Amino acid sequence: MKMVAPILAVLAAIVLLWYGAAVGLNAQWTYDQAARAGETVTFSELVTDTMNQKRPVLPAPHQVAQGLWQGVFGQKFTSKRSLIFHGWITLSATLAGFALGTGLGIVLAVGITHSRAMDLSVMPWAIASQTIPILAIAPMVIVVLASLGITGLLPKAIIAAYLSFFPVLVSMVKGLRAPDNMQLDLLKTYNASKGETFWKLRLPSSMPYLFASLKVGVAASLVGTIVAELPAGATRGLGARLLSGSYYGQTVQIWSALFAAAALAALLVIVVGAIERITLKRMGMVR
Amino acid sequence: MTEKPVIEASNLSLTFQTGDGPVHALKDVDLEIGKGEFVSFIGPSGCGKTTFLRCIAALETPTAGRLTVNGMSPDEARKARSYGYVFQAAGLYPWRTIAGNVRLPLEIMGYSKEDQAARVEKVLSLVDLEGFGKKFPWQLSGGMQQRASIARALAFDAEILLMDEPFGALDEIVRDKLNEELLKLWSATNKTIGFVTHSIPEAVYLSTKIVVMSPRPGRIHEVIESTLPKGPRPLDIRDSEEFLKIAHQVREGLRAGHAYDE
């Protein structure tokens, strides 16, 4: 309970601020409408109107909540207007990209820790890859792959993997190098092979590092997928929902999709966290 | 000594090349260690005692001279798994239970499952850790962890046990107890032990042979054969005149080797 009170207090403050901002930002439209009709508006009329505009600059919290409710429960899950439908499209590409990126990150990290040539050649490119804005490269990947006849989930997953492999790579290189000289010497006295050293020492040592990076990676995957859904007129997925919302000035739709994406990200991080706790507990690394 | 020595070093030198010029970690070391001996290496830091032990274990490569372990080169001896090595820190894997840690060398060396279990049980009782096999390292005290690491070195049948300040990080009370247990274990198993230490009483109490080393360059100053009885010794042997005489001899040796200069 001690934890809940501060969280609720902060939440209440945010909602209050939000309502205030909604009144302020949406007031102009109300004034314009009133002026056109030759009327004046009282303060209470102003507040009521700014809370309930169809296309507000900033939708009020309850409008977003309504939009979310409508999107999740207001229709069949298979409907094109269902946030569950779009969320699933995004989630599936996110998970595919996350798996791809994590796999790539781990494989590269293993290569880097075992080969000096890879250490020198791969790492600079990996770092350089992350300096390119994803917004710039995503449309090109989509277009190039589409011209090769590859559309749907895979191009989005590739963009997601592009973002998520990096944290996994960096953490795993650190994790696989975590064993100190004494632990490596000990295995040497047993005349252990490189493979045994990897499976019995390096890999278990890297687990805490891996999970820390997976939490970053899964969130990055979601961002990558949404960005990949923006260009090329995608019609399915939370990113497409954001885009079509902005085409038609449907701010409530945009905000609803944003919150759906945030909830999805939170859910993914929580799931990874739970897997982390279970795994480390079974390994005896959590007291 | 009619038997062939287990460890034999002649004119052994090891020079590290550093940015500040060469460092003579070991210079012209001659030593023979016979089967079943308990040999302590004592001296100040930088005298090469740990380096010498690491040379025997083939963790360092000498730059000159000859060194044989069981009649083989150190590297061949390492590949033949001739020795168990105990480090200053227990270095148990936190993700393995105590039994799992002791089993580690057995898994790598390809012992059968039943043999592994039997050996783990045997060595855990040797170091007085029966019933702790299912615990994780963090559930044990420092002294118990170090005992587990000794059990790990004993689990496979190496004739030689190399110990690099294994009790250096423990308090004196625990250290006394472990010293006593180590002596019992040694007389029960008849292994050859090389033991690096900073402590004069520890060296005198444990050893049949004390190698006094001095620094810059690292070399053997004096080899003292202990006249104390071989086998388990009571802790209060340390109050005997003979013990004090040997301890005095070691101290004199360290002084003459300029160990106290700094």
UniProtKB/TrEMBL annotation, chain A:
Main location: membrane
Keywords: Cell membrane, Membrane, Transmembrane, Transmembrane helix, Transport
Pfam families recorded: BPD_transp_1
One cellular component (GO) term of this entry: plasma membrane
Compartments reported by the entry: Cell membrane
Coiled coil: none
Domain ABC transmembrane type-1: residue ranges: 87-276
Gene Ontology biological-process annotations: transmembrane transport
Keyword Cell membrane among record annotations: yes
Topology in the lipid bilayer: Multi-pass membrane protein
InterPro entries linked: MetI-like, MetI-like_sf
Transmembrane segments: 83-110, 122-147, 153-173, 209-234, 254-275
Record flagged with keyword GTP-binding: no
PROSITE patterns reported for this sequence: ABC_TM1
Family: Belongs to the binding-protein-dependent transport system permease family.
PANTHER family: ABC TRANSPORTER PERMEASE PROTEIN HI_0355-RELATED, ALKANE SULFONATE ABC TRANSPORTER-RELATED, MEMBRANE SUBUNIT
Record-given protein name: Pyrimidine ABC transporter permease
Native organism: Thioclava atlantica
From TrEMBL, chain B:
Coiled-coil intervals, chain numbering: none
Stored InterPro entries: AAA+_ATPase (IPR003593), ABC_transporter-like_ATP-bd (IPR003439), ABC_transporter-like_CS (IPR017871), ABC_transporter_ATP-bind (IPR050166), P-loop_NTPase (IPR027417)
Signal peptide: none
Source organism superkingdom: Bacteria
Bilayer-crossing regions: none
Keywords from the named record: ATP-binding, Nucleotide-binding, Transport
GO MF term list: ATP binding; ATP hydrolysis activity
Gene3D superfamilies per the UniProt record, alphabetical: P-loop containing nucleotide triphosphate hydrolases
ABC transporter domain residues: 7-240
Keyword Nucleotide-binding: yes
Family listed: Belongs to the ABC transporter superfamily.
Official protein name in the record: Pyrimidine ABC transporter ATP-binding protein
Native species: Thioclava atlantica
